[in-house]
Design goal:
By secondary structure, the protein is mainly α. The protein has 16 helices and four strands. Helix 9 packs across helix 10, helix 12 crosses helix 15 and helix 13 packs antiparallel against helix 15.
Length: about 375
């Protein structure tokens, strides 16, 4: 039994490490494996030994320390790329200094707004009509005064109601336009002075800032000047009904186009820069309603169709156009009554919308709308009245 399950003898294992006699063999027949840490330790110890030997060569006096930097012995991460390739693969960039939260950076300061004058930078980046920061009241009432321009629009709209009130009181255009010219001259003179004297300009802004746009602080003249000039031209050089209607179109159509254009212009196509289809349609509707209300209610109710009115509630084709179309009877090409009022109202809306849309050499809307509207009404009545 013991012979069948006999335990084998312990085998003789030859160790791969050298014996003490082989490790000290000067013949160099055996070289043990060397790790990176062992090689680094050997290099450090050899460097120290060389420094000690160099001290002995100088007669026992320590050698002065070299001013040249010693080679760095820091550990470098192993990589398959060369040293120069590893340095260039990830360039080190200096980080910008952090600005604490809430600290001013100058982007929306009044100085940055002044630098943008003379360019269209502000109009390209903002839907607001002018930059923010030049008029103190605009900073305190950003929505009421700056964004929606409520005081400015109230003044704009009130001129139309005041014109209609003067008409119901029997005032004639010859009595009104001298007062407009007398107001225009001092207002324009004051505006010229404020652009020349900075101190006077600051005092002017404190008083009239709620009615101004911030582009009018340095770059442009006050819109009141152009408003007075446009109404003076319409009442001075055109018939009474045409001049009165042109002033009301300026007062109400321009305000409607601006209001609805800002509210709904983003949802409609842009007709031209700064003008949307929503604003043009609003001007068209308000213009038609204004003419229908004026010729359909106020004129018959108060003073009737006076002799100096260009529209006498009658429209007809010109003789040349009538004969070209083959109509001999004049009555067949003539409309009167409410049909004529309806056509006149439709043309007034088209004239107001077109005058609000076009750009005449960059002039202000307050001067182009009444003049172009009056020209359009006068031309239409001259041909078909």
């Amino acid at each position: 039994m013991s012979q069948e399950y006999r335990i084998p003898a312990t085998p003789n294992v030859i160790s791969p490490s050298p014996t003490p006699s082989e490790a000290g063999d000067p013949s160099g027949s055996y070289f043990p494996p060397t790790t990176r840490s062992a090689a680094r330790h050997a290099a450090t110890s050899s460097a120290i030994e060389e420094e000690e030997d160099s001290d002995l060569d100088t007669g026992g006096r320590p050698r002065a320390r070299s001013r040249s930097p010693k080679p760095s012995l820091t550990k470098r991460r192993a990589s398959g790329l060369p040293k120069r390739a590893r340095q260039n693969s990830f360039p080190v960039q200096k980080s910008k200094p952090l600005i604490p939260n809430g600290a001013p950076n100058g982007h929306l300061s009044p100085d940055s707004a002044r630098e943008s004058f003379g360019s269209s930078a502000w109009r390209a980046i903002s839907r607001s009509p002018s930059p923010l920061g030049l008029i103190p009241i605009h900073r305190h009432w950003r929505t009421f005064v700056h964004k929606h321009e409520v005081p400015r629009k109230l003044l704009h709209v009130s001129i139309g109601f005041f014109t209609l009130f003067l008409y119901t009181r029997g005032a004639q255009t010859g009595q009104i336009h001298p007062w407009l010219l007398g107001t225009l001259i001092p207002v324009a003179s004051v505006d010229v002075l404020r652009h020349r004297f900075e101190g006077f300009n600051r005092a002017y802004i404190r008083v009239c800032g709620a009615l101004m746009r911030e582009t009018e602080v340095k770059e442009r003249y006050n819109g009141v000047i152009w408003y007075l000039l446009g109404t003076w031209v319409a009442l001075r050089f055109f018939p009474k009904d045409v001049g009165v209607l042109a002033v009301m179109l300026l007062s109400w159509c321009d305000t409607a186009a601006s209001t609805f254009g800002r509210l709904y212009g983003r949802y409609t196509p842009r007709v031209r820069k700064g003008k949307s289809l929503a604003g043009s349609l609003a001007a068209l509707i308000v213009g038609c309603s204004t003419a229908w209300l004026f010729y359909g209610y106020f004129v018959p109710t108060y003073w009737g169709f006076e002799e100096d009115f260009m529209f006498q509630k009658r429209l007809s084709l010109p003789d040349s156009m009538r004969l070209t179309l083959g109509y001999v009877d004049q009555a067949a090409c003539t409309v009167t009554g409410w049909a004529a009022v309806g056509l006149m109202g439709l043309w007034s809306g088209l004239a107001a919308s077109a005058s609000e849309l076009v750009d005449v050499f960059g002039l202000d809307d307050n001067v182009t709308i009444p003049i172009l509207s009056a020209v359009g009404l006068w031309g239409f009545l001259k041909a078909f009245g």
